[in-house]
C-alpha cells in the first residue's frame, strides 16, 4: 500500500488541500469554503485523491488546520494555522525566521526556528482591519478582480495618502477618493501602504528576525508585498503558492507524525 | 445583547476556598443593601488598593466597591445594558468600562428611585459619600465619582491622592520618599477628618491600630499562602486566584479575611501533601504576567488547564510583599504605618531593578516569579479600556526578552548537529476587555491559546539539559 498524507487548511474564505506521497507533494486543490465546512473538506479530499488516483484508505494520516479545522471529522490531528504555515514555509525556504500571514479574516506575524517550530506570534485584533477582507472590499469598490489588484498598484506614479487599513472605513475612503478623481493605481498603492503600516505595528510589537516571508492569500498581491518591503526596507520572500503553505505544512506534519509513531513502535 | 443571553459555563475551581467566594461576594453586596435599608451605618463608594480600609472599618463605614460590582456584572454577562445606558448619556466606551458600567447603573437607579430590574445580586446600594483616589495614574478613579455626582448631587466626594516616587535607575528612591510619606499621611489624615464629619463620630485610634495590625497579619499570610504555589504540581492557579483575591482586595481589616487565608493555606498544604495539582498532568507552568482578566471569560483558564497548563503565579491582584522584607521605618502611629506600607510596596523592586541594566521594577517582579515558580511562559491580557494597568505590558515583555533569555534549547543546524542556543520565554498576549464582551471572541482567544500551547510544546521538546 502506498502511504499518502493529507493536509487540509480550512480557511474562512478559501479551503485548500495538499496530498503528499511519502515526502513528495503529489497534488493540491483549493476552493471557496462555503457554508458547510464538513462537506467542503470531504470534497477537497475526494478531489486530491481522484487526481492522484488513490483511495481514502491510502491516506495514513490527515492533519487539519485553519479556522474550520475542528469540524473536519475525519482529521486525525488538528494544529493551528501558524504551526502549519511554519512547517510549510521552512520546508520551502529554510532561512525564514519571521512570517507575515495575511488571511481573509486575520493577519498574523510569527517567528519560527530552523525546524519550523513556532517561537512567538501576534494576531490582529477581533476586527478585520489589516486583513485580506479589506482587500476584497477595495476590489469591490474599484470593480477589479482580486488577482489583478496587486500588479495595478505597481504602476502608481503619484503618492496618495490613505488613512486606514480598516475593512469598513477603507470602503468609504476609497469611494470618496474616486470621486476626487484619484487614479486607481495611486489609490491602490496608498491603500497598501496603510495596510502595510497596520501590519507593521503588529510586527514591531513582536520583534522581527531575518529572513522574512509573506504567506496567505494577501501574499499573492504584489502591490502589498512591495508596500511592506518599502516600509521595512528589506526583501520579503514570497514562497510559491503562498496561499497553500498551511495545507502543505499540515501534510508535512501528518507525515512527520507517522514517522514518529513508527519510531516509537520500533 | 445576543451574546449576553449565552450565559458562561460555570468555571471549575481547583480549591474549595475559591469555590466559597461567590456566596461571600454576594453577601457583601446584599449586606450593603441591607445596611442601606436599616440606615444605621454609612456607606461609601470606593476603590480597591488604596490602603484605607482600616480607616473606614475603624469608623464602621461600609465600603461599596464600585469596581467589584462592575466586575460582577461582567462575570454574569450582565454589563452590556449598563454600558449602553452610559453611552446614551454621552460617555465613550473607550473610557474605563468599570466606570461606564457603574455610571450607567447609577443613573438608572437614580432615575427609577429603586434598583434597575434584574440588577445583579440586588444591585449596588446608594452611597452616603464617595471616596475617590487618583492613584496609579488612573483618571477614572478621580473622574468616575465626579461624573456620578450628576445623578447624586447630594452625595459628597473626598479624593485621596496616593503617589509614590517613580523609578529612576540613577537615584535611590529613599532620598525623596520622606516627602511622599508626609504628603500621603496628610492625605489620610484628611480622609479621617472627612469621615468623622460624615459619620459624626471620632476616630478611635486604638481600634485603628488593632485593625492595621490585623491587616498586616493578613497581608503576610497571603504572601506565605501564595508562596505555597511554588510546589510542583501547583495546587492552585490564577483562575482560582481571581476568586481568592476577594478577601485581599475587598475585606482587609476583617477577621473573616484573615480566617479565609488560614483555611486556604491549610487546604493548599493538604493538596501539596497529596501531590494534587491544579491540573491532573501538569505540563506547563505559566505566569499571568499582567492585566485584569476578561471577567466574562474566566473559563479560558479551564481551557488552558485542559491543555496541561497551570498558573502558579500572577502579578494581578497580588498586591503584597511581606512587611518584614520591606525596608521601611517602624512607627507606632497607624496612619504613618499605612503610608509607609504603601511606599514600601510600590518601591519593593526598585533596588533590584537598579542592579540590572535595562531593567524596571515591573520586569524584576516578572523575573522573580519566573525563577521562583519555575515558569515556562508568560500570559498577559490587554484590556483595552483600562489604561492604568495595561499600558506598558508589551514593553515589559520586550524588556524581559532583552535582559532575560533563560531557556537553553537544542537547535539542529544545517550540519545536522544540535547547537545549544538561548531562546526567549514564550509569551501570549490576549486582547479584549474587563467587562465589554463585544471586544471578545472565544474562537480567536482559543486559537491563540492553541498556538501558544504548540509553542510551549516545541520548547519542551527541544529544551537542552
Ligand atoms: S481604569 Fe483601570 S484601574 Fe482605573 S478604575 Fe478603571 S479598571 Fe480600575
Summed up, what is this model?
The complex is a heterodimer of chains A (266) and B (465). By secondary structure, chain A is an alpha/beta fold. Chain A contains 8 helices and 10 strands.
Largest sheet of chain B: 4 strands, parallel
Small-molecule components bound: iron/sulfur cluster
General shape of chain B: globular
What is the H/E order of chain A?
EEEHEEHEEEHHHHEHEH
Helix-and-strand structural type of chain B: alpha/beta
Multimeric state: heterodimer
Largest beta sheet: strand ordering of chain B: 2-1-3-4
Question: Helices and strands of chain B, in N-to-C order?
Answer: HHHEHEHHHEHEHHHHEHEHHHEHHEEEH
Largest sheet features of chain A: 5 strands, mixed
What is the tally of beta strands of chain B?
Answer: 10
* Overall shape of chain A: globular
The CATH architecture of the largest domain in chain A would be 2-Layer Sandwich
Domain module count of chain A: 2
Percent of residues of chain B in beta strands? Answer: 5-15%
Low-confidence stretches of chain A: none
Number of separate structural domains of chain B: 1
Termini separation of chain A comes to 20 Å
- What Rg of chain A is obtained from the alpha carbons, in whole angstroms? 19 Å
Q: CATH H-level name of the largest domain in chain A... which superfamily? A: ATPase, nucleotide binding domain
Number of DSSP-assigned strands of chain A: 10
Q: Indicate the low-confidence ranges of chain B by residue numbers.
A: 1-5
Task: Give an overview in words.
- The complex is a heterodimer of chains A (266) and B (465).
- Chain A has 266 residues and is α/β, with parallel strands linked by helices.
- Chain A has two domains: 1-93 and 242-266, Nucleotidyltransferase, domain 5; 95-238, 2-Layer Sandwich (Nucleotidyltransferase, domain 5), CATH 3.30.420.40.
- Chain A has eight helices and ten strands.
- In chain A, the strands form two sheets. In chain A, strands 3-2-1-4-5 form a five-stranded mixed sheet. In chain A, strands 8-7-6-9-10 form a five-stranded mixed sheet, sandwiched between helices.
- In chain A, a hairpin with a 2-residue loop joins strand 2 (14-21) and strand 3 (24-32).
- In chain A, 52% of the residues are buried.
- Chain B has one domain (3-464).
- Chain B contains 19 helices and ten strands.
- Chain B has a four-stranded parallel sheet, sandwiched between helices. Chain B has a four-stranded parallel sheet with strand order 6-5-7-10, with helices on both faces.
- In chain B, helix 9 crosses helix 14 and helix 16 crosses helix 18 (393-403).
- The longest helix of chain B is centred in the middle third of the chain and has 23 residues, at 177-199.
- The chains are: A alpha/beta (266), B alpha/beta (465).
- Chain A binds chain B through residues 67, 79-80, 82-83, 94, 106, 110, 113-115, 117-123, 125-126, 205, 207, and chain B through 394, 398, 401, 411-414, 423-424, 426-427, 429, 431-432, 439-441, 443-444, 447-448, 450-452, 454-455, 458, 462.
- Iron/sulfur cluster is lined by residues 67, 96, 98-99, 138, 140-141, 386, 388-389, 434 of chain B.
